[in-house]
Amino acid sequence: MKLLVILFLFMVSIPIFGQDIDTLSFYSEAFQENRTVYIHKSDHYKYKSASVKLPLIYILDGQHEWFVDPILSDIRYLQYTHEIPHALIVIIPHKNRNKECGIINLKTELALDVFITEELEKELKKYNPNDFKLIIGHSFSASFSLYSYYNHPNFYNSVIANTPLDEMPLLVSSLQENDEIEKDKILISIGGIAKDKDYYHRKKYDLLKEKYPDFFSAIHVFEANASTHNAVPIVSTPMLITKVFEQFSSRYSEIAQVNMDYKLITEPETTEREIQKILTASQIGHFFYPPEIAEINGIASKYWSSDYTDWATEVYKLGTKYYPNYYEFYLFLYELTLNKNKGKSRAYLEKAESLVLSVENKKEQKNEIMEEIRAQKLKNGW
User: Based on the domain organization, do 209 and 143 belong to the same domain?
Assistant: First the structure.
């Protein structure tokens, strides 16, 4: 039990928003010059297997920290609270924002559109993403996002356009008339009508809403009536991105339900059946979202707390399939199998030891875990 206590203390001390950032630079034929984007990977990325494929979230206006940083914080916290899945977040800066995002007409090809849907698409394959793509823009880049979605409705799964203005009458009328466009994949936010809020954008929006009521009733809208133009994306992103992934957070709500004492309400079915329930619930539409690290721990702990140790063991084994580089699952498996199969238990402990040494990099916490692992090996005569 000492090992479990130390492990828990180590878990809660891990930074919530640990991020790994890759700088991806390559020559763009569309722009006729080198371009750079930034790939934000969550701390869980280094643990996953190839079977865990993450969605892509493109954030435009990457040159503006005031815009990108709050959006990133919103996304990270929503991931921490399991409202949305872990994702590969692609930050795309602009060198000339108005030129790159400015719409001439819906058929004139923009270099930024080719860059995202063709060139960057090829470069991102090395990250093994799934096919889910969400693009987020603000103002000029919000209109561009709608333009890009109009031209590539099968490329994106959702578009979040925060307070767009450029060519909105053309965009709204064209999106409305195109029957191939899935309107419920469009999410638009807008600020307040007051002069010191988002007056010009809101005025255009209100006129379009009155003219095209069917369109605006078919899409998702967030009216941030108290917000200024630049505050709208910061206020609206948590609401809109949660809407995009609205089925994600509740997908395991029917599995291993517990009461106020954290005991199972009903007796579980066979281990095979319970694991199948998890896998079935992981499928949302066309996309498979396997349980994340915290969800594996949460589900397993519910079985364990009611002394269904075989069920907890199988859940942690599932965890090692999706996150083979995560040492913690092997430590729990060591504890669960210690009195049942010494050989397997030792193998789990030694696997955890090798992963702590090779994957973890927080020296002080790492040393504490290693000391206890060695103590466990000594106690067992290993």
Answer: yes
What mean pLDDT do residues 3-31 have?
67
First to last CA, the chain: 18
Residue 264 lies in a domain: no
Quote the CA–CA distance of 224 and 38 in Å, as a whole number: 29
Does residue 115 sit within a domain?
Answer: yes
Collapsed DSSP state (helix, strand, coil) of residue 74: helix
Smallest Cα–Cα separation from 28: which of 116, 151, 97, 149?
A: 116
Query: Residue 270 is which amino acid?
Result: T
Across-strand partners of 272? Answer: none
Cα–Cα separations (whole angstroms), residue 226 to 123, 143, 222: 40, 22, 12
Same domain? 299 vs 209: no
The residue to which tokens 């991020």 are assigned = 19
Structural domain span for residue 280: 271-379
Q: Which residue in this structure is represented by tokens 């009458």?
A: 169
- Whether residues 184 and 317 share a domain: the answer is no
SS3 90: strand
At 39-75, the pLDDT tens digits run 999 888 999 999 999 999 999 999 999 899 999 999 9
- Interatomic CA distance for residues 33 and 89, integer angstroms: 23
